[in-house]
Write a structure and sequence with these properties.
This protein is mostly helical. The protein has four helices and no strands.
Amino acid sequence: MSAAEIIELIKKLPPEEKAEVREFLKNGAADSAPVERKIRYISNEEFDKIAPKIFADNHELLRRLAQ
């Protein structure tokens, strides 16, 4: 379920249940919040160095995924 779908469901709740959602977001959601991770990229040169080994080591998996 997407965030947009959840938001639409919350909009339809009665005021008491919306208050419960607000309370959860204020207090309870902090415990389960995902850790923000920075996306790292490698250079084209680095990719060119490691790609043959990755493809060779995972040949069977890649073959199955291509089917």
